[in-house]
Amino acid sequence: MKLNVLPLVALASLALPAYAHHSFGMFEMTKNVGFEGEVLQYNWENPHSHLVIKVPADAKDQSTVGTWDIELQSVNIMSRQGWNRSTYKVGDHAVLVAHPMRDGSKGASVFYAVMPDGRRLYGDIARPVTDTPAPSK
Question: Considering the entire predicted model, what is its pTM?
């Protein structure tokens, strides 16, 4: 029996993008945690941008003290929300609300950032019905 390989290859190639993107199942998407600290690194890149911040020892929420890798969305999605490659630079003060990792490690998925002028930059097109208060020190 002779198989036509071309349709099988075409079908398999459709499944590849699904493997290239991870699920947000590793984040506690129903929990919002406030992070406030100094930007150590801001990577504007695909498939996901990242913001590494250091929350100081005197933070109001002691569970947030330390260095955190906050995962952002893709450059395309972030751009549509008002972010750009110069939104943050090393040394900037960052105020974020994010969904922490389920396993308790120091990582989170951004919900929104509060800019110095009070504007909120969301991480995705999904917007809340009611706002979550920003962290206060």
Answer: 0.76
